[in-house]
């Protein structure tokens, strides 16, 4: 058995650099930017008014001063002339500041009669001018690699970039194995259950930027499994679920090896998830997940999520950990790193009583995986522990 850290490190060495593709801004959210994006213009490109009001020349006017309105500046419609000391231009938010103007008086602070304004008492002291380039300058960068958020997309649009270079989405083929499984919505026989973690994993992988294909369920024969693995051809990553352990019907390791799997490791000092295997098969990376629903989802969190990030050019690092205070005691841990389903509340973190790796209801209620190091002694309430948010 190898440790989680060394298994993940081995996995990262199998990752190929991502391929680049160009997508329109509409397709960019959630994708990983591969080259720095560089602004082609200043924003704002001109000094602009921050409010609706009147642009005037003096920077320090006094209450009672009056000005003659000589024109208007609206967003998209600059005032063409220059403003003199006794003049004002009616101006709206986002409009270019007229030449010679050094201050915008908000309309709440003036009284207006025909084409004259007079400044009221208690003038708002702010100038309400946004200098050119206050948001960003031509040449400003959004640095790669990064997964693009909606905020990033807004900034890229403001930079006048209509397309962006991103990592191609990894193609993942997901194969569930086992005669006992049927797809959700099918009619299970009396000795059958529904393939569940398959769908949980597909959702998890897609959320990490993958394009996940759920293949038909592989029955427990070497021929069927080999056929399914052939169907996965073309994927960047093949993920099998189940059949990874030592039972007579656990065929994945043998069949994959017969088909050329160059195995990097098998069995991890981890709970749940001990019978995990990984390697390269042809051009693809392959990971064999244990079948227990919680084991598969926990292994997905600990291995597949960081792996997909690395495959898209993001830093090859484990899932970030945080720390919290225990609110109830924990017994000593054994020889495997334990990822306990836990609930994190304002007061701290507590592991669920029931930790069987078949219990999806417990996983569904958990919002954190509380991490117990190998051979961790018993812990009391009030001690600090590591966790990974779910
Ligand atoms: N003698 C031993 N028995 C087992 C060991 C061991 O070391 N010695 N390891 C146990 C551990 S730990 C795990 S985890 C399981 C994993 O075994 P497999 O990967 O071979 O998984 P299966 O036997 O195929 O299935 C286990 C369990 O999960 C259900 N399953 C499988 N796929 C799905 C799916 N897609 N959706 C929902 N449920 C699924 C399956 O029906 C079984 O109930 O082995 C232990 N045994
Ligand atoms: O590792 Mo198994 O995944 O303990 O249930």
TrEMBL record:
Its EC number is 2.10.1.1. It comes from the Bacteria. It is an enzyme of class 2 (transferase). Keywords: Magnesium, Metal-binding, Molybdenum, Molybdenum cofactor biosynthesis, Transferase. Residues 173-310 form the MoaB/Mog domain. It holds the Pfam family MoeA_N. GO terms for biological process: Mo-molybdopterin cofactor biosynthetic process. Its cofactor is Mg(2+). CDD domains: MoeA. Belongs to the MoeA family. This is Molybdopterin molybdenumtransferase. It comes from Poseidonocella sedimentorum.
